[in-house]
Structures are given as structure tokens and as C-alpha cells.
Amino acid sequence: MTVTLQLPGVLAGYAGGRREIEIAVPDAEAGDGAATTVARVLDRLAGDLPALERRIRDERSVIRRHVNVYVDGADIRSLSGAETRIADGATIDVIPAISGG
User: Domains in the chain: how many in total?
Assistant: First the structure.
């Protein structure tokens, strides 16, 4: 399955300047019960673009507190967090919080 990861300009530098990345996630093995989740997509991202993945998740593979992740427009915090299931062709938006005064 393939999903699209969309990034703001502030993170694009960690993806070779790309603001949109197609990520191929292997389908779950028959009978293993594994679903494709946001966590599995980020695991795949860690192998391909580790510097980018480290900006999204911490050293424990937890999505950083100030990073917002949306699947097809829905905030994963209101769903199942990193275990939110995703469908083939889904769009994942990563938006770091911006603070200042």
C-alpha cells in the first residue's frame, strides 16, 4: 500500500526539499493481525529518512508533543494516536506547532 506524507516547508529540508513523499508500506502478512497504522508508516520513514522521522518522533518512537499529525484531515489524537489505522491512498499531514509572541 502507498500513502502520501505531506510536510510543511520547515520539515522539507529533512526530506531533500520535498513537501510531499510517497511511502510504500508492505501489506500486513496474511493472518499476522497487523494493520497498517501511522506508526508503521513512521517506522518505514525511519528507514528511508531517519533525520525527518526524528523530528516527528522521539527516541522512544512516540510522536513529539508539539507535532500534530492528521490522517485524511482527522487529528490522530482524537482517533487512536499512532495506532490509527490507515487505508491505501491515505494522506498524512505532519504539522509542527509554531509558537512565539
Answer: 1
